Fold each of these.
Amino acid sequence: MLTDIEIAQQAKLAKINTIAGKLGIEADDLEPYGHYKAKIPQKVIDSLSDKPDGKLVLVTAINPTPAGEGKTTTSIGLAEAMNRLGKKAVLALREPSLGPVFGIKGGAAGGGYSQVVPMEDINLHFTGDMHAITAANNLLCAIIDNHLQQGNELGIDPRMIQIDRCLDMNDRALRNCVIGMGTRVDGVPRQDRFRITVASEVMAILCLADSLADLKKRLGNILVAYTYDGKPVFARDLNAVGAMAALLKDAVNPNLVQTLENNPAFIHGGPFANIAHGCNSVRATKLALKTGEYCITEAGFGSDLGAEKFFDIKCRFAGLKPVCVVLVATIRALKYNGGVPKTELGTENLDALKAGIVNLGTHIENMHKFGVPVVVAVNHFASDTDAEIAYVTDYCKQKGVEVAFSDVFLKGGEGGIELANKVLATVEAHPESSFKPLYDASLPIKEKIGVLAREIYRADGVIFTAAAEKALKKIEEIGMDKLPICVAKTQYSLSDDPAKLGKPTNFNITVRDLKVSSGAGFVVVYTGDIMTMPGLPKKPAAYGIDIDDAGNISGLF
């Protein structure tokens, strides 16, 4: 069987102007990056403003497991299948981060015969968006430290700097560091830290900005520090905004590529859903809605993270109204949630399936709380038995949702026809969106966290550490407590403990810190032991990646 990268390298790609033509975009209006990638400039977005919007379908999943679920693969396969059925479906996906590409997870361009291409480019440097975001973020950090060096006119307290440097790579050695060491001309020594680029506020801002003007406003609103007397200092106070925006002038524009079946895909922005809001850019999603009958988009990790933030942050800010949720699962992953070791997932085990399927049930119930109908997509494996398939089918029927078994990994769009038909039928049965956010953003922060803890995570309560209480008080003092919240939490469990699988009970969520992302427009709530800079595993994926003398890359997945 061919690997993902071998399948991608054998694909017959259409020139990017041909793909743009399917969307009604002229070749002269593109900003091409070679033959198979292009940026969509603002003038094109403006020209589409009067067109009606298509229908928005969100793809999310149960809590991820080592068994794999295939959310991006399902998104791509669903779009392929819809196009085969004569529906104009356009993808709006996130850009991969180099951290997972060289770490454990690998790339984020789909898999098998449901991929976006050119796969190597998308998974590596692509059009340079990640580098631009890294540069803009670190320019702001450099300006802050230069301000300290040049006399600190604003009176910034070096111990109260709120923004971290970033790097789009897993590098645990940079989680905590000391900078400014050396002689007097080398800067003011202070403790600093790095986070992965996709978890930076600049990434969140790029993904939530509606325009270049909105981008600049949001960049100016970044809370960078507090003064010695406790007053907030923003990026605009340091005259950093113009230069940061100049670095982002191309990155803010959505990227156009294609699927293996030559259908259009916008790939733009890529925040992690466990430590950020986990959705592709508002501009890419709106562009897909203007150019297609259906926009198929995804949100990161399980629905308790990505989908919740998609609804409560992205849809709230952008005025989006999704009409259907596709909830991805596998029988293998459900058995893993029921206690089966990864090595035994290929063996029929109805008892474990019954124990683990409560995770799927909880995600179904959670999505219904936003007023959006759900279709369950089960990625089909050869090891799935008739009895297991029948049990999952009956369970979904009892939950009042449609279920489809998907073979998009092996068959591309053909393997997603059943899923596409059930999504289309569900949308036709609910033509008007009844979507609503879960909470009122004007509620006190503790109440907003309490709503998510009870309704989504199913916790008994919330515990705030002393550090969290102190941070909360400061946020209230500066009047930024009326923003939506973005919970940083483990993706592996509905709780904040990655070891608690299935549907945990009798637990509390522990909040250890809070931070205002005032440019992005939300408050980040840190729970459990979640980290903003991942580390590499003992045997990182980087070990298997190579390039030959002809420039052919191998080992990407």
Amino acid sequence: MADAALWQRYQDWLYYHDELGLYLDISRMRFDDSFVAAMQPKFEQAFKDMAALEGGAIANPDENRMVGHYWLRDPDLAPTPALKQEISKTLDAIDAFAQKVHSGEIHPPGAAKFTDILSIGIGGSALGPQFVASALAPESPPLAIHFFDNTDPAGFDRVINQLGDRLASTLVIVITKSGGTPETRNGMIEAKQAFADRQLDFARQAVAITLPGSKMDDLAKSEHWLATFPMFDWVGGRTSELSAVGLLDAALQGVDIRAMLDGAKTIDIATRVPRLKENPAALLALSWYYAGNGKGEKDMVVLPYKDSLLLFSRYLQQLVMESLGKEKDLDGKTVYQGIAVYGNKGTTDQHAYVQQLREGVPNFFLTFIEVLKDREGASVEVESGVTAGDYLSGLLQGTRQALYENQRDSITVTIPAVTARHVGALIALYERAVGFYGFLVHINAYHQPGVEAGKKAAAAILDLQTRVIQVLKQEGQPLSLEALAAKAGAADQIETIYKIVRHLAANQRGVLLAGNPGEPSSLQVRAE
């Protein structure tokens, strides 16, 4: 396409939000007018579906739940006065708690103020807070933040060792809907032990964010933790950053959470417009559908050209892939939907995998995240008339052009600066785009049966481990893997048992292995 035609296409498809100064450019997605016309009926239905969702329709039939993360940033839209009051009350409580921690009115037993946060959660209870901390926390925050976001013992040790003596002035925030999520429970138990090892009172430095009446809520209240904040059953983990899940961490770090909510609310309003070209989330969904033929046939590569937005692609991995990665559609038909997301940041990745993006397998489309403002204050010239920020902008534009010249499609989202308001807007924009795309491909974007299947499989393996240990203790003599499996009532799970005993032996957990590790069938297993 000639330069003049490209310039006209850019103008035809450029979306601009005047209040936010946000641009969305989909002109380098090579769809034509006939594609847009064919998609129009789908979008007309999607706009109606989105309106019903926001009105309180049951959108998660597996759990009979509404989906209402939109109400978090505009409580007036909540379907009942009670929900409206609950949202506003929680936000006020977060503000008040953060102010009291910052002033020292709420403080640890042995110090004048809290110095650090240990945030314990997984999935949406970690990825959102991590992204916002990386993007928005000031250089010298009132409280520095650390995360337990896995069940890796060495990871726990590393964080506790980093805290060192500051564990005595660390505020622990445990984030879990029920208290039953194993990774979060394990992190809490490990943190409690670390406190006990140093003769510290965990309860006097702990806060819970959980469903009212949950096991975690009961535990926190029975042990007299500092505070509890509610999670809502109508907010999924991957859309929970603008609830207490993300806002408490952010407020304690000195982030303007009201500005984040305002940015999200502003985008929500823009994405309620039932006209494709005037709705940025619908434009994103249109582009995703075109790129992957409505079947996720191409990956979404996300490249933020700003160090502070490094974790945005990681945050989007869960939001997009957990929402859209579904085996069945709403009619129960097998469809295998989803869009794979990966990315890091520009220009770092121009020295990593942009070579493949331009000349390798064309199995992707790219999203550039551009930030207009380079820094606070003036920049030194690295060449005559050129700053480092000019290079950053030039490399983005050059990569976009080079990719398009080789038939690689891209989207560019541009914001004026990385502020709390604009981060809130980005979160809302992609939440809404995921919702629209889910409606377009007729899947439920608000449940995650595959995640639950993995949890159930893990629980079964741990149950088998208990049986294996019991058999070894009862037998008191070496057993082959085959004999051990038979006695544990799991003759068809020899490989799983092999991996269980190998792990136990490596950690001196009362199991000894004799034989050639390279020939598992030769191994003899016994209790130590």
